[in-house]
Amino acid sequence: MNQLKYVTAIKNGDFTGLPISSTSTAVNLTGSWKFFRPRLAAKESPCRLACPLNIPIAAWLDDLQKNRPDLALRRLRDYNPLPAVTGRVCPHFCREACNRGDFDEAVRIGDLERYLGDLGLEHDYAPAPSPGKERVAVVGCGPAGLGAAVFLARRGIKVTIFEKGPAPGGLLRSAIPAYRLPREILERELAVLLRDLPLEIICNREIRATDRERLEREYDQVIWAPGLQVSRKDEAWPDDPRLTGALEMLAAINAGAAIGGDDFIIIGGGNAALDTARCLLRLGKKAEIIYRRKLAEMPAYAEEQRQAKEEGVVIHDETLVGKIDPTATKLRLSLHQARPDKNRINCGPWLRDIEVDGLIAAIGQGSDLEISGTHPVISAGDFAHGAASVAKALASGRRAAETVLRRLGRSFDDENQPGETAVVTSREQLHLDYFSHAPAISPQELAPRRRLDNFCEISQTLTAEQAAAENRRCFHCGICTACGICWFFCPDVAIAFDREAPDPNLRVLFDEDHCKGCGQCATVCPRGVIEMEEDH
Amino acid sequence: MQQEAILLGSDAVAHGVRLCRPEVISAYPITPQTHIIETLSEMVDRGDLHSEFIKVESEMSAIAAVLGSVSAGSRSFTASSSQGLAMMHEILHWYAGARLPLVLVNANRALGAPWNIWSDQSDSFSQRDTGWLQIYCETSQEALDSIVIAYKAGEQLMLPVMVMIDGFILSHTMERLRLPEEEEVDRYLPAYQPPYRLDWEKPLTFGAAAHPDLFYELKQTQAATMQEAFAVLRQCETDFARQFGRLYTPVMGCPEGDDASDCVIICCGAMTGTARVAVARLKENGEAAALYKIRLVRPFPQAELKLKLAGKKEIIVLNRACSYGVGGTLSQEIRAALYDLEKRPLIKDVMISLGGKEVFPETIMNIVRNRAQLSSSECNWLA
After folding, report:
1. Which of B205, B216, B228 to mutate to test the interface with A (most CBs of A within 10 A)?
2. To 5 degrees, how large is the angle CA A13–CA A18–CA A21?
3. The pTM is what?
4. Confidence label for A416 from pLDDT (cuts 50, 70 and 90)
5. How do the domains of chain A map onto residue ranges?
6. CB nearest A23 (choices: B99, B205, B228)
7. Do domains A135-229+367-408 and A252-365 have the same CATH topology?
8. What integer is the mean pLDDT of A452-464?
9. CATH of domain A252-365
10. pLDDT for position A412
């Protein structure tokens, strides 16, 4: 052990020595006494694992709270190319897993994502690297195809997307109503996303199964993400133009086409059924929903159900359409009580007959594309896994891109992805005493009576103050936020922390030479990030 | 010209502190000390005293707060009593070891259990080994003067000084006092200028870990400085007497007694006043006894006592603190001091009062008259 250099005080010439040293106590290497050492053991937040895209939510929320939107945006965009879109349309699986849910109310992560996504509409991406010689084709420019293409283009791959429709976006453009996703937001987000990327989008080009051989010859890799763009219909339905599918009806409405007829019945209980009904109501039509199961079993997102109810959408649950009788002027439908029988739901007793101008099936989606060949293709999105959320489509696009990169012999930066062994921060690992109760901050919504004559967006983006307040509610589970509690409590001044370090794992630095391993830091950490391990 | 005033003992202490112009005061109230800090806080509030008064939640915090201010080179003050002083115990050691010259006034009071707020000296006697100088006062005037002397001596020695007044007996009674003039005290007591202080510009480490050899060496220095304290204190007391006309010494004889008598009464603190009356009455009756008051308990004036007590037959020590299992604490100090004498006097160890038990002149007179019955091997408790 080094020794302190003590000063010598001479007073009255005859006594010396005060216990005062001209050196710092740092010469005492008290770290040699320890049996345990602290380490930063970052964990995953439950919201991240619940997110199909595995967005490191706690990390970018922390960046945002530290007033570093650029860093937050970079972290978010690494995982999600369309945050302004998903901030609006994603049901936010993350919220359901939020540790704050039991404390008072889950953090409104979606509204915060939307807030940051909207900030991003003004922020360009860093320039992508110049493309190499590899060329990849992507079929379909919906969320999955776009997600895959952008992921590749940002890693120096030249990508060509073939889109059947007139513009990129897929279902974002054709199916999702503007009151949920204003087209201006979609356009602006696509513009900022695609700016200066080595990526070509060829619209109005439908790719058929027969094109496979040619594509695979011309491109190094092909990703198939054509989506499920065709509504499923009951095969027993008569062939009549007044019997349509929800996707087709939504596409027509979203394209601004004139819709004939005044009175509609929609069959189904998912988002497509509600979207169609709500769009038709906005066009001044009458539209009611027939759903064969109980209301509580509807698969549509809860928020959509709430808003539809506010707007007066009528839903007849436990009801089936029996006979369809197309007359010259109307469709005559017989409505029946649903009668569940094993796995099927059959028509029960007759209820009444009604006459409508159109019947719309919102009972599922399909594809008319069937790829055949000797080896499997790389596919993504609804085409690969069936109809799902935008976030799931983006995630599957990313996975497809990773497969492509692997096949091209290229590595990809996957280090930050939570692995199979990811440790999730449990509520027990959090010190809730550090947090105070506060209700969630909900965005302002257009009053229901002011929604029905327009397609204006219903909910507003949080203001900066609201976003900051809502962000303060986040526990930031499992990541070091450099809150400084450990620094404050460390009795040996053996902790330094760096609020500015972008990597949460580098925010707290333990002074191994002086840490005695007392473990106070691990005990007081609000987020359960510090753990003690044996020191050998 | 010193102004005369009739003041409470607590106020006398407060005026003594005011005259020394401490820059920082921190204290926590406890009976019977409360009036001292109440008066000081009023002085600060009125602007009569330009001090930072730090309010705290315990005696531990009070003594710790001024640890910082003294380290930073500010003259500081605190006061306590009984349980409060006991609570300060570990930091008391630190002051002496770190060589920080604080002045603390303790209003002597019993320690529980059982609960008792009245006076005895067990609280401060149980802090004898903390390395502080200890001065016990007989009168409020002596307390006021001792505070001024304590700052001067302590700051020269770089050691803390504890000044004792008996709770209630001094703190809550009024006395005619002479208040030194501020300018005179300023002349007597220079500003506190420690050789080292906490300073951002010149960083130093205070009280850091010392390895065994260095620790031993520093403690040896501390012990040597305590021996040095006799001379430094004598000089300070002499200077004070020259300037203010009142002389104090570590062991003070009392003219009321008969110095030629071979029976000596020894006590310390305010009880000396009662003992003066007792020996005066005895003298009137032709029953002679000498009376000495011990003013300085740390460092203990062994050499001076040896000179004064050599040749005496009997010494009656009147104790107000007990070291359980041995006897009166003061008696043990006297015994140890006189051990080297060729002809050792008999020592009668008397536990005269604890927890405010009243002591009248008759109590002392009876002890002296019946001293033949007193044991000289065991502590004598009153019937």
Report:
1. B205
2. 125
3. 0.71
4. low
5. 135-229+367-408, 252-365
6. B205
7. yes
8. 94
9. 3.50.50.60
10. 67
Min Cα separation A17/chain B (Å): 6
- B205–A25 CB contact, under 8 Å: yes
Q: Cβ B211–A3 below 8 Å, yes or no? A: yes
Q: Give pLDDT tens digits for A60-71.
A: 999 999 999 999
pLDDT at A11: 41
Pairwise CB contact (< 8 Å): B205 & A11 = no
> What is the chain B residue with the closest CA to A29?
B209
Distance CA B362, CA A99 (A): 78
Residue A520 has pLDDT above 90, yes or no: yes
pLDDT tens digits, B65-119: 999 999 999 999 999 999 999 999 999 999 999 999 999 999 999 999 999 999 9
Tokens representing A308 are 């539809």
> CB of B97 within 8 Å of any CB in chain A?
yes
Q: Take residue B309 and report the two structure tokens written for it.
A: 């007590």
Asked if A238 and A361 count as a contact pair (C-beta separation under 8 A), the reply is: no
Instruction: Kindly report the nearest CA distance between residue A528 and chain B, in angstroms.
Output: 32
Reported as a pLDDT band with limits 50, 70 and 90, residue A13 is very low
> Does B205 sit within 8 Å of A3, measured CB to CB?
no
In this complex, the residue of A1, A18, A25 whose CB is nearest that of residue B99 is A18
Q: Which of A1, A5, A15, A33 to mutate to test the interface with B (most CBs of B within 10 A)?
A: A15
DSSP labels, B76-119: EEEEE-HHHHHHTHHHHHHHHHHT---EEEEEE-PPPSSP--S-
Closest CA to A265 of A364, A361, A363: A361
Q: Which CATH architecture is the domain A135-229+367-408 placed in?
A: 3-Layer(bba) Sandwich (3.50)
